[in-house]
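Example record

One chain of 488 residues, shown exactly as stored in the release files.
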Amino acid sequence: MKLENTVLKQYLHGRSCDILGLGVSNLPLAEQLHAMGISLTVRDKKPLSELGDAANRLAREGVSFITGDGCFDAPKGEVIFRSPGIRPDLPGLLAAKAAGAELTSEIELFLKLTNNTTYAITGSDGKTTSTTLTGKFLSAEMARRPQGKVFVGGNIGAPLLDRLPEMDENDPIVMELSSFQLMTLEHAPTYAAITNLSPNHLDWHGNMEEYIRAKTRIIGSRTRRLVISADCPITAELAKELLARRRRGKSTPDLYLFSSHKTSFTDIFGEEGDPEDRALFERNGTIYLARRNEELPILSTDTIRIPGRHNLENFMTAIGLTFGQADPSVYRRVAEEFRGVEHRLEWIRTLNGVDYYNSSIDSSPTRTAAALSALDGRDIVIICGGYDKKIPFEPLAESLIRHVRAVVLTGATGEKIGRILTAHPNYRPGQPEAVYTADFTEAVHRARALSRPGGCVLLSPACASFDAFRNFAERGNTFRKIVEAFEN
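Predicted structure tokens for this chain:
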């Protein structure tokens, strides 16, 4: 039996609520608010008939539904919960806020209401693996204690707001946060990480400046520690800004800067860095965590089972977040057991000497570049293409020319990528070989036909999935089913 969420009930007592978009995080919220007796209206562009059995049950029990075009034009609730995919600056929402409504979201209200220690990770690439590792490190630490539990949610896993009653005050909370969720965040986490920043979701944000502003809202007055990349130009510049702010006497979080290319504290911080700041780096097969005059070996890279320097950076991110909160012995234990996250360079099978990898999560050129770098030296046939997020494909063309023997292009952007590839100044006919097919299943079969023993077939689309699939997971699962059905 589910415990009553008294904290949420007290906060919303006597106030009407609107929920905009009945998605993964908002359906449990709708059920919870209805059970509390809150006056509730659900607004969604889909008709009620397409919202599923739970929504229809809520409608039969008296919850008001407003659907179709214009459903977000005039919300009336005193508290409005926004689904992450709905922009907060829609005219109807701005008008509601001007009239006194509170605009929030499931994750925003959770951060406002919880007093637990929170660990939040964002970034263009690597945030899900870094979040998963952070949760595993803390879970391994909690297993050493008589009681306690780690909760993982946000943009990964289950929503968190409806799980408040299950949480003891000492339970750590780990969350992945997207730019959509961060755009209006006012209550920042205790420990924050930005893995890296590169052009992404510009179809939604409109420009890179808004995207960066959203991501950096993860840093706030409650943030004790910030873990960021010293290799990414945008996050490195952010670190410089924070250090400059500190020199002016302003308060900043402790900085933990990581690098998979630099090899000492001085390389990373230069002459900057306070006693509580740390550098994370790899040297001679060991990850170190260092202050200016002290280096602490943390983890041998030989124990990390998932390939690629980007995964080394994911480990550094999670170590940086949890250092001092987890015994260093847990890092080795988790590294030896962790085989990666589904849809992220996930090995599917080896058939006739060819390895098949599902990296459907790779929805940007930088993610695909990281996957290709992890498989560097292999004979690679890659499948690319999908929904167009209006981000540049020139970096993808460079990666394809450098790393792959053949590329199978598919989806809405397949032909566009092909044109950019062949127009690249470093492209030579047939290097790589490029073929196009609109059908995804046919693309997987074409990739198999082009593969060679000892090589690999990699699904790494560099694009979102919405042209043909509901999400990247459905795309990856489809790839897996096709590959598993291959016969010798």
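Notes: Residues 20 and 371 are 36 Å apart (CA to CA).
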